[in-house]
Amino acid sequence: MDLYKVLEVSKDAAQDEIRRSYRRLARKYHPDANPGDKRAEERFKEVQHAYEVLSTPEKRREYDEGPRTFFGSQGAGQPSGANFQDFSDLLGGFGNLGDIFGRSANAAQRTRAKGESITVNVRLSFEDALRGVTTRVGVPVEEACGECRGTGAAPGTAPLTCPECGGRGVQSRDQGFFALSTPCSRCGGEGRIIEKPCTVCGGNGRVRRNRQVKVRIPAGAKDGMKVRIPGRGSAGRRGGPAGDLYVVTRVEEHPVFRRRGDDFVVEVPVSFVEAVLGAQIEVPRPGGGTVRVKLPAGTQDGKQFKVRGAGAPRTKKNGAENGNLIVRVGLVVPKKLKRREREILEALAEERDEDVRQDLFKKVRS
Ligand SMILES: [Zn+2]
Ligand SMILES: [Zn+2]
Fold first, then answer.
1. Angle subtended at Cα 309 by Cα 253 and Cα 312, rounded to the nearest 5 degrees
2. pTM above the 0.85 mark?
3. Which pLDDT belongs to residue 178?
4. pLDDT by residue (tens digit) across 85-99?
5. Could you tell me the distance, in angstroms and rounded to a whole number, from the CA of residue 153 to the centre of ligand 1?
6. The predicted structure's pLDDT at residue 107
7. Residue 359 belongs to what H/E stretch?
């Protein structure tokens, strides 16, 4: 087996080229990327082995000179370093692709992070939430510093690629099969160095500001509703995208109307005469105006009537109807009676001579 062919490099390939090719092939044949593929696993092992030999100058020389088999640890006349098993153990199974190769990405690209998303509450009156409103909220965001345009370097200067790590953010030492990486001590893993920090942001590239953001609250907004405004959170780092803004509605409670999903519930006092005889009553509706509700004779306490479409506007799209107004009957029993009223009721009591608890006792006895 020709180890150069395994790594797909020429016999006079430089260490750099060998490492690059190894990374590419290891990534390609890594078991995580080829679950259950025995052939890929074999190739992965071959690539590991070829790299072990060719990346160690001594071993590479021996291999170039020898007519010896170099696959496996025997034949070289001296024990080879680690074998595949050790490699596997060291990384806990095959290790994770990101663990092994993530560090090879350019640090500046790695730290190109999306800005933080920010959540703010907006307090709304009952009426505003019902009708919908455009309002302004103060949002404490990190914005790109205007002085240095977010670079963190004083105007007229620019961040330098770290000369120590070449912008990779890590320093690596080759340890046989794989490179041991530690964050670069010179740049702290950033991959770049700011020699003259911007005085406004202190080199951070971002400054804290209270930004006023216009928010459109849709009609029918519920308490606790989350409105997402993409890109209005904190600025990203190193040209990364801005985070999002989430506005959470806090709707004040109404003394009369209670929200239940898209419906409103209103408890309406009904006199015992109206309940007994039936009546047409006026009921207030959320957002103003009234609706008429017909109570049939013999309406019970707690009975609910639904007035279709008199509730909250639906916030969902696609032609959904408005919510409903639920009218709940609250029976009012008079505490005082005029003499004439008392006489009428006493006559009624005699007339009806009813036993309303008959059923109750029947159920208890049986
Ligand atoms: Zn600045
Ligand atoms: Zn560095």
1. 25
2. no
3. 64
4. 333 333 333 434 444
5. 7
6. 58
7. helix 358-365
- Tokens linked to 270: 């009904």
Mean pLDDT over each residue of the chain, to the nearest integer: 83
pLDDT value of residue 89: 35
Question: Left if phi > 0, otherwise alpha if psi is -120 to 50, otherwise beta: which for 288?
Answer: left
Separation of CA 88 and ligand 2 centre (Å): 29
> How far is the C-alpha of 152 from the C-alpha of 149, rounded, in Å?
8
Contacts 24+ apart (CB under 8 A), 96-99: 96/32, 97/27, 97/30, 97/32, 97/33
Kindly report the CA angle at 19 between 13 and 21, in degrees rounded to 5?
A: 75
The count of other CB atoms within 10 Å of the CB of residue 201 is 21
Query: What's the mean pLDDT in 155-171?
Result: 87
Please give the Cα distance from 78 to 80 (Å, whole number): 6
Nearest-angstrom CA–CA distance, 191 and 270:
75
Q: Percent of the chain at pLDDT above 70?
A: 83
Residue 199 Cα to ligand 1 middle (Å): 6
Ligand 1 ion: Cβ-proximal residues, 5 Å cutoff: 145, 147-148, 198, 200-201
Closest ligand by atom to 150 CA:
1
> Separation of 237 CA from ligand 1 center, angstroms?
12
Residues 152, 157, 158, 163: is their CA dihedral positive or negative? negative
Beta strands (DSSP E) in 145-205 are 160-161, 170-175, 178-183, 192-193
Binning pLDDT at 50, 70 and 90, where does residue 310 land?
confident
For residue 170, give the ligand nearest its CA.
Answer: 2
Ligand in closest contact with the CA of 147: 1
- How many A from CA of 95 to the centre of ligand 2? 25
Region at 287 (left for phi over 0; alpha for psi -120 to 50; beta for the rest): left
Average pLDDT value for residue range 117-146: 93
Of 329, 326, 327, give the one whose Cα is nearest residue 270: 329
Q: Grade residue 189 by pLDDT with cuts at 50, 70 and 90.
A: confident
Question: Could you tell me the distance, in angstroms and rounded to a whole number, from the CA of residue 312 to the centre of ligand 2?
Answer: 59
As given in the structure block, the two tokens for residue 288 are: 């103003």
Ligand nearest to the CA of 198: 1
